[in-house]
Amino acid sequence: MTNLSKLLRQELEEKYIIHYGDVQLDRKAKDHTRKFLIGFNTKQDPGAIVETVIIPEKHRSTLCISSQIGCSLKCSFCHTGTQKLVRNLTAGEVIGQYMIAAQRSGDFPIQDNSKRVLSNMVFMGQGEPLYNWRTTSKAIKILTNSEGLAYPKSKIVVSTSGVAPLIPKLASELGVSLAISLHATNNDLRDELVPLNKTYPLEMVLDACRQYSQVMGNKGRRITFE
After folding, report:
1. Among the four 10, 128, 175, 211, which has the fewest Cβ within 10 Å?
2. Among candidates 29, 24, 27, 26, which has minimal Cα distance to 39?
């Protein structure tokens, strides 16, 4: 940052460090899907490792981000559901996943008038993002800040298993897109597949989706049902 004095830059270099996380694995599949395993302070916390994935498509590339280490929801079809919830990630750790992927994809440092390689972002990795609401909302506000990374809100999707009370806030506070991890269209089956349904049954989830749509209005954010 050459707009800062040399003395200040020297002091910042001596006292602070920018560290996005430790990349423990960076591997591409045959279809060019790219998986990162990223550790956060693993010397003190060996289990603090999350998965971040770049999913390439013909006209776009999507970054799948984790919000927790492990998960507490125990959805029957999800491998992360077999793991215990270790802890919530911090906003810095969520953003660190993006920064590592962005640097290795050529999206950072930001170039004027250049098209982003990572054109889309989904909170569909490890964990339930709405059970880590403070981190999820803080990270998205930082990512989309016009004076920073300025990531488009319309290109961010938050996926939830159905934490109904917080779904409308994705519209009112963040303005991002919504995906519902549905997996069944009746409560009896969904109770088995997604145990959270016993707390927030389909009727509550769909009502929250209606509230989300009303707040978003004509901003064009569709709801995806997975």
Report:
1. 10
2. 24
Q: In the CATH scheme, what is the code of domain 24-225? A: 3.20.20.70
- The structural domains of the chain, with segments of one domain joined by +, span 24-225
| Strands across the sheet containing 34-39 | 22-28, 34-39, 49-56, 61-64, 120-123, 156-160, 177-180, 223-225
Give the pLDDT means over successive 10-residue stretches in the chain (226 positions): 88 92 96 96 88 95 96 88 89 97 94 90 96 97 95 96 97 96 96 96 98 88 88
DSSP annotation of 59 reads S
Burial of 179 (0-12, 13-18, 19+ CB in 10 A): middle
Task: Assign residue 10 a region (left: φ > 0; alpha: ψ between -120 and 50; beta: otherwise).
Answer: alpha
